[in-house]
Design a protein that fits this description.
The chain has 544 residues and is α/β, with parallel strands linked by helices. It folds into three domains: 140 residues, 2-Layer Sandwich (Nucleotidyltransferase, domain 5); 173 residues, Nucleotidyltransferase, domain 5; 192 residues, Hypothetical protein af1432 (Orthogonal Bundle). The chain has 21 helices and 15 strands. The strands form three sheets. Strands 1, 2, 3, 4, 5 and 6 form a six-stranded mixed sheet that branches. A hairpin with a 2-residue loop joins strand 13 and strand 14. Helix 7 crosses helix 11 and helix 9 packs antiparallel against helix 11. The longest helix has 22 residues. The chain is elongated, with a radius of gyration of 26 Å.
C-alpha cells in the first residue's frame, strides 16, 4: 500500500482555463486531496513550468467524519459515505473550474480500516471521477515528514514529528536530510472518541480520562521504545488537533486572539495540563463555547488532548512547536520529486531505498538479484522495440524491483520461497508505492516460478489491467531468473530479435552455460503461451 498515484483528471472533471474571472497563467494546476477520518481537504496549486515554483490557488476543508463508527464496526457507515461523496462532488467541480490537469488523491486511516472500502471508493469514482489511493500508515508518516520538515529551518539534529489524525497518530524521527524512524499508531481523536465516549455529551470523569490514557500508552509502547533511542532537538506538531489545542491554550492567556496569539506557535506541557482538565470537565455545548476552539472539533477534542498529553508524558516532551504544514504539503513535494527531478533531486529514490532495505533485511543475494533485474530489463526493452508488448516506464520500474526482490522469501524457507516473497512484499509496507503497484509487484514475484494463470487465486483476484501486466512482467522475470540459474552471471545479455519472420531470443555468454541453456529449452512452451508465437534460442558468445 502505498504512495499516491499521480493521475490525470478523468474526462468530465477537467476545466480548460483558470478559475472564473482570472487570466490564464503558465504552468499546470494540481489538485491534492487528503481524505482523512475526520475531514477531507483539497489544495489547488499552480506548478510553474520552468522552476516548478508553486502557488497555492485555493484550499478547502470539510469535516465529513468518514471514520464515524468504522473503528468500532470495521465498516464505513452509509450516512458518512453519502456526506463524503457529496462534498467530493463539489471539490471535483472546483478542480474543473480551476483547470486542474493532474490530481493526487490519498485516503488514510478510515478507508484503510474499512472492510467496505472498495465499495466506497468505487462509488466515489462513479459520482465524482476521482480515484483515491489508500496509503499505508508508514507511507502517511513519510509524506507528513516530507511536508512538515521541508517547511522548517535547516537542521542536522533529529526532530520528533507528531501528527494526530482521526484514526491514527504518525510519529516520525528525522532531520532536514531524511527520516530515521516512521511509526503509525492506531490512536486517533475520532477512533478514541467512538471507543470511550460514544454519544455521551457530558463531562468526562477523571477515571474515564485515565482509561483513555492507559489505552493510548498500550498502543504507543513499541513506538515509544524506538523513539527513546534518539536524541531529539525538538518536537513539531502538525495536526489540526495540536493546532487547536495550542490556540485554546493561547486564548486562555490572551482572550480573543486564539491562533493569532504568538503563543499559539507552541504548546507546552504546563499549559496543556490545566487545559485538558478544563476540556474534560465541560459538556459538549460548553466545550463548543471555549475560547480558541474550533466548535466542529468539540466532540473529539477530549480524546485529542489525551493523546497529546500521553505522548508528552511518555516521551518527556515539554513543548511542541506547531506547524501549519501537513500531509498535503508532503504529497505535493513527493509529486514534484517524481515528476520534476531536474528541480527536486531526490538522491536514491524512496522506492529503491525501501526495496533495498527489504532485500538486505532478508539477506538477499544482492549480486544475483541485481543481475536478474538487469536481464529482465533487457528482455523488456527488446520486446517493446519489436512490438511484443506495450511497455511503459512504470511497468519497467516494477520489473526491476521484482528482480531485486524475487528471492527474498528464501529468508523464510527455500521451499515455496516465491509465496514467501509475495507475502513479504504485500506486508512490509514498502514506501512510495501505490496499492496497484504493490499488487503487480508481489504477483510478478510470485509467478517467477510458474506461469501466471487464473487458476491461481492470487492472479484471478487482480483487475484485468493488472493481470495483463503480471502476465508479461512475470515472463521476463522468469526468463531472467533461469538465465542466471547458476548464480554465476555467465549470461551477460539477452534480447529478443527477429530474423525474417522468426522470433529469436539471443543470449550472450562469457562461458559455457549448460544449465541456463536447459532452462531456456524448458521455457519454449511458456514463451509461446505468453507471446503467442514460437521463439528460437540462439547462443551468441561475447567478450568478457
Amino acid at each position: 500500500m502505498k504512495s499516491p498515484a499521480h493521475a490525470a483528471v478523468p474526462a468530465g472533471s477537467v476545466g480548460t482555463g483558470e478559475a472564473p474571472g482570472t487570466a490564464v497563467q503558465p504552468g499546470k494546476v494540481l489538485g491534492i486531496f487528503d481524505l482523512g477520518s475526520n475531514s477531507v481537504r483539497l489544495m489547488l496549486v499552480r506548478v510553474g513550468p520552468v522552476n516548478a515554483s508553486c502557488t497555492v490557488l485555493n484550499q478547502v476543508k470539510h469535516m465529513v467524519r468518514l471514520g464515524e463508527g468504522v473503528f468500532l464496526h470495521g465498516r464505513l457507515h452509509e450516512e458518512a459515505m453519502q456526506r463524503t461523496v457529496h462534498v467530493l462532488q463539489g471539490m471535483a467541480g472546483m478542480c474543473s473550474a480551476y483547470g486542474v490537469t493532474d490530481i493526487v488523491a490519498c485516503a488514510t486511516a478510515a478507508v484503510r480500516d474499512a472492510d467496505n472500502a472498495p465499495v466506497f471508493l468505487k462509488r466515489v469514482r462513479e459520482h465524482t471521477g476521482l480515484t483515491f489511493t489508500v496509503i499505508s500508515g508508514r507511507e502517511e508518516a513519510r509524506l507528513i515528514y516530507l511536508g512538515v520538515a521541508s517547511g522548517l529551518e535547516y537542521s542536522e539534529e533529529n526532530r520528533l514529528f507528531i501528527d494526530i489524525g482521526g484514526g491514527s497518530t504518525e510519529l516520525i524521527v528525522g532531520n532536514s536530510h531524511n527520516f530515521s524512524n516512521l511509526d503509525s499508531v492506531k490512536v486517533g481523536c475520532v477512533r478514541l472518541s467512538n471507543q470511550f465516549f460514544g454519544a455521551d455529551d457530558g463531562p468526562a470523569s477523571a477515571a474515564r480520562y485515565r482509561q483513555v490514557q492507559d489505552a493510548i500508552r498500550n498502543q504507543l509502547l513499541h513506538a515509544v521504545k524506538r523513539i527513546e533511542g534518539y536524541d531529539l532537538a525538538e518536537a513539531v506538531g502538525s495536526s489540526g488537533t495540536i493546532q487547536n489545542l495550542a490556540a485554546m491554550a493561547a486564548a486562555a492567556d490572551q482572550t480573543g486572539l486564539g491562533k493569532k496569539a504568538p503563543e499559539a506557535r507552541f504548546l507546552t506541557y504546563d499549559k496543556l495540563l490545566p487545559l485538558a482538565d478544563r476540556i474534560r470537565n465541560c459538556t459538549l455545548e460548553e466545550r463548543r463555547a471555549l475560547p480558541g476552539i474550533n466548535p466542529k472539533r468539540a466532540d473529539v477534542i477530549v480524546a485529542g488532548a489525551a493523546i497529546v498529553q500521553t505522548l508528552m508524558e511518555e516521551l518527556g516532551v515539554e513543548s511542541i512547536s506547531v506547524s501549519n504544514r501537513s500531509l498535503q504539503n508532503g504529497i505535493l513535494l513527493d509529486y514534484l520529486m517524481r515528476t520534476r527531478p531536474d528541480v527536486f533531486p531526490e538522491g536514491i529514490p524512496t522506492r529503491e531505498q525501501s526495496v533495498l532495505q527489504l532485500g538486505r533485511l532478508c539477506r538477499f543475494e544482492e549480486r544475483h538479484s541485481r543481475h536478474v533485474g538487469d536481464l529482465a530489463l533487457m528482455l523488456f526493452d527488446s520486446a517493446v522495440s519489436l512490438g511484443l508488448h506495450k511497455g511503459g516506464k512504470g511497468r519497467r520500474e516494477l520489473l526491476r524491483y521484482a528482480g531485486l526482490l524475487h528471492d527474498v522469501g528464501i529468508f523464510i524457507s527455500f521451499e515455496n520461497h516465491h509465496a514467501h516473497s509475495h507475502y513479504l512484499i504485500r506486508n512490509k509496507e514498502l514506501l512510495g508505492f501505490t496499492d496497484e503497484e504493490i499488487d503487480v509487484l508481489a504477483a510478478t514475484v510470485y509467478f517467477h516460478r510458474k506461469r501466471a494463470s487464473p487458476k491461481y487465486e492470487i492472479f484471478a483476484q487482480l483487475a484485468p489491467a493488472r493481470q495483463e501486466a503480471v502476465r508479461i512482467l512475470s515472463l521476463f522475470l522468469t526468463l531472467a531468473e533461469r538465465l542466471d540459474k547458476t548464480h554465476c552471471q555467465l549470461v551477460r545479455a539477452a534480447e529478443f530479435q527477429r530474423r525474417g519472420k522468426k522470433l529469436e531470443l539471443h543470449i550472450k555468454t562469457v562461458a559455457a552455460c549448460p544449465m541456463e541453456l536447459r532452462e531456456m529449452e524448458r521455457s519454449r512452451k511458456l514463451l509461446h503461451k505468453v507471446l503467442g508465437e514460437k521463439v528460437g534460442v540462439r547462443l551468441v558468445p561475447c567478450d568478457v
